[in-house]
Every structure is written in structure tokens, then in C-alpha cells.
Design a protein that fits this description.
The complex is a heterodimer. By secondary structure, chain A is mainly β. Chain A is built from no helices and eleven strands. In chain B, strand 6 and strand 7 form a beta hairpin. The chains are: A mainly beta, B mainly beta.
């Protein structure tokens, strides 16, 4: 099956610093990747849709200047949390859709748990 | 608006059978997914239905009725490791995934 790798799986940072999370599709090309945030005991909240070679589409209420998304290649998307604050602490998950499929099936990364002190 | 409903929490006994329901109202329909998510982990794919009927895969089965906007996930011979959240998600006419809030399934010995 398709594999999506997310790194780092856990990161602790100080307030005010920036953190970059990578999402890679290891064995397929992904024209579209999605970034989610998940609060404890809650479902996935779509933050943005990342399209290779173009600007990300952010969901309402998500600050694009705070959550920078770059999708530079067909296998890599990055999420940078800028000037992190404790309230940004959360579980961030990426997913990717195969370029060759229209079913909408998503393949998820392992998730990244961010703790901002 | 687009909406997906599923129960918040269910409890079942080890070895038994449980059915998790999902109803949806979306702008268009291009398939329904069930994902399993253990606490602290990313979701994993369980099933995909795009046509009416029952899809069986081992201990798990998923059913779809497009006319009723309804699906269920059936888990048989429950094991303790099945304790997880089960997420129903529908692909709309733009192939965007609309997520349900998830059903937390608690398995008791």
C-alpha cells in the first residue's frame, strides 16, 4: 500500500520559535496533500489543502501567516508553525492523495505531536 | 450545509458484534470511507463504499445505502484491540472529504 511518512513524530519547542513538519509520500506521487489538526478526543480538523506547485488553500479561521505550507514537489509538503504559542500545541496529521486516483482515498502520515512550552 | 452524523461513543463486549452507524447529507457523493484511529495515532483505512450494498473484509464489513444517505460499519468477533475511534468520511462532488466527528468504541472484557 501507499506510504506517507511524517517527521518529526514528536517535537517540543519554546514559545516564539518556529517548527517545521515534513510530510512525504514515499512510494507514490501526491499532487494534493492535506494538513489536519486534532485536539484531544476530537475529530480531524482540516487546516489546509496543499497543491504541488501552487499556493495552499486554507480553511476558514486558519491563519496562513502562522501556518506556512509549502508543497515544493510531488512527494513533499511541509507545515511550518511560526512564532509558536502554547495554544498551538496539538497533534498535526498530514495525508496525501495519489495523483493517479480519483477515489478520494487518503493515506495518512503517522502524525506529529507538537508541544509548545 | 454538509453534515455527517455518527454516535459519539459506543460500548461492546469482547467477542460480540457491534454496528456503528453513519448518516450523511452532502453536496454530491463520490464514496464513503471508514477509518480507524487509535488514541495518539493517525487514522488507518478500513473500507471504501461507492455502490450500494455490503463490503466484507475479514471481521469488518461496511454497508452503504446512497438513497438513504446511510452507512454502517459492522465489527464481528470483537477484540480488545478494536477499542478505538471510528471515523466516517464522505467524498463530495468536488472529491473533498467531509469528516464525521468519530465514534469512540469501548470494548469490555
Amino acid at each position: 500500500g501507499a506510504v506517507v511518512s511524517q517527521h518529526p513524530s514528536r517535537v517540543i519547542c519554546k514559545s516564539g520559535t518556529s517548527v517545521k513538519i515534513e510530510c512525504r509520500s514515499l512510494d507514490f506521487q501526491a499532487t494534493t496533500m492535506f494538513w489536519y489538526r486534532q485536539f484531544p478526543k476530537k475529530s480531524l480538523m482540516l487546516m489546509a489543502t496543499s497543491n504541488e506547485g501552487s499556493k495552499a488553500t486554507y480553511e476558514q479561521g486558519v491563519e496562513k501567516d502562522k501556518f506556512l505550507i509549502n508543497h515544493a514537489s510531488l512527494t513533499l509538503s511541509t507545515l511550518t508553525v511560526t512564532s509558536a504559542h502554547p495554544e498551538d500545541s496539538s497533534f498535526y496529521i498530514c495525508s496525501a492523495r495519489r495523483a493517479s486516483e480519483d477515489t478520494g482515498e487518503l493515506f495518512f502520515g503517522e502524525g506529529s505531536r507538537l508541544t509548545v512550552l | 450545509g454538509q453534515n455527517i452524523d455518527q454516535p459519539t461513543e459506543m460500548t461492546a463486549t469482547e467477542g460480540a458484534i457491534v454496528q456503528i452507524n453513519c448518516t450523511y447529507q452532502t453536496s454530491g457523493f463520490n464514496g464513503l470511507f471508514w477509518y480507524q484511529q487509535h488514541a495518539g495515532e493517525a487514522p488507518t483505512f478500513l473500507s471504501y463504499n461507492v455502490l450500494d450494498g455490503l463490503e466484507e473484509k475479514g471481521r469488518f464489513s461496511s454497508f452503504l445505502s446512497r438513497s438513504k444517505g446511510y452507512s454502517y460499519l459492522l465489527l464481528k468477533e470483537l477484540q480488545m484491540k478494536d477499542s478505538a475511534s471510528y471515523l466516517c468520511a464522505v467524498t463530495d462532488s468536488n472529491y473533498q472529504l467531509i469528516w464525521g466527528a468519530g465514534t469512540k468504541l469501548i470494548i469490555k472484557p
